[in-house]
Amino acid sequence: MKQTFSVKTLFLQRVADHFRQLKALCKTAIDWIVWLYVILPVLVIGGYNYWKWWRDEWDLSAMMFPIETIIFAVLFLLMAAGSLRFFIERADQLFLRQYHHGYRQLKKLGVFYSATVHFIILVVVFAILAPLFLVQLEKNIAFLVALFFLCWSGSLLIPAIRQLLQFRFRGWRYYIMNTIFMGSSAAVYWGMIHLWDAAKTNQLLLMAGCLLIIFTLTWFVLVVRMHKTSVFLDELANEITLKYRFMSTMLMSAGMVGAPQFQQVKTAKSNKRPWFFRKSGTIFSKRTPEKVIIELHMKYLLRNKNRRMLMLQLTGTCLFALLILPSVLKWIVWFIAIIMFLHLNNSYVVEMKRNTFLRAYDWEREKLALYTRKSVFWTNFPCMTVIGIVAGAVLFPWWGIVAVGSATFGISYLLQPLLQK
């Protein structure tokens, strides 16, 4: 009992330290400007629309994509983003690992902590989505509750299996196995939901049976995960990544609001080559200073995983907002999306200008500004195309795709010099 109590005390101390770090980070990152210009407007607009979701029914036939499919896809992504935290530290290798019972107790507490955190997050998410399910999609409460427990169990099952795959496979083999696993999980998830939705009789019995199977599988995988041995270094590396995931996300996104870009320190790897433009060949056959800048900007953006992923995540967030928000807010999101992409890509240009290669040449200031202005426009072109097409399709009939798409490029081109200054 004494050893168990000491392990619990150690675990609670580490959890408390983690939340203190998060609190300090939030105090540093969220000042009164963010509260006044970002958080409060989002709360007011979101609260008003949440109230309308309970009162007014949408015309779902006018939407470009089925809102039901979008919501289920978001819930699956939320499950896939789940994690298991064990709060393992480097010193545990010297002391705590010698006591297998205490080390296993630490993992059990980590599973309980992860399950509690996921439960709270899903309660908030499903409270927000409740009017969409109950009023707009006309689902019953039993379906909503069953979907909640399915997502809760999946948020523990998916990261546990993913960690087991990390211990078993390395490099490209892991990516292949993880892709197969995630595709199979998505297929089972969609099949189960459609089976519940199509059941006219005995729906409660069917949902209870499926949840019992999922809970049993989750319990079995978690037991296997907790009893996994000889993987301490892998567990420690995974724990460090999860520990600083929230902090890294905030710092990597700081460039969107004008803060200096955060550079993640990584261990140098031999024979490491980028996925795009691996041989560093030229893109344009005709070599001019303007095309050289555009080419450097494209490589600077696409060769870095964090930069291209941030662009893709921002595009996905804007598209999701365009699909689910009312028409008035769609216009606001469309305009804000243009500003955000220009601001983000301009911050990348500022970084690129500090590069030693560019500073080695005597560039004329006016011409360099003109070249980088065009490079921002063309590197934003794919994202602006997608946002313009989707915004035009959800706001107008077919001709809106051409009109809003053209307006997107025009506004982006006109605002670029102002934001660059």
UniProtKB/TrEMBL annotation:
Task: From the record, give the transmembrane residue ranges.
Answer: 29-51, 63-88, 109-135, 141-160, 172-192, 204-224, 309-325, 331-350, 371-390
Has keyword Membrane?
A: yes
Whether Ligase counts among this entry's keywords is no
Record key words, sorted = Membrane, Transmembrane, Transmembrane helix
InterPro entries, A to Z: EcsB_ABC (IPR010288)
GO CC terms of this entry: membrane
Q: Which Pfam families match?
A: EcsB
Name-wise, this protein is ABC transporter protein EcsB
Q: Which organism is it from?
A: Evansella caseinilytica
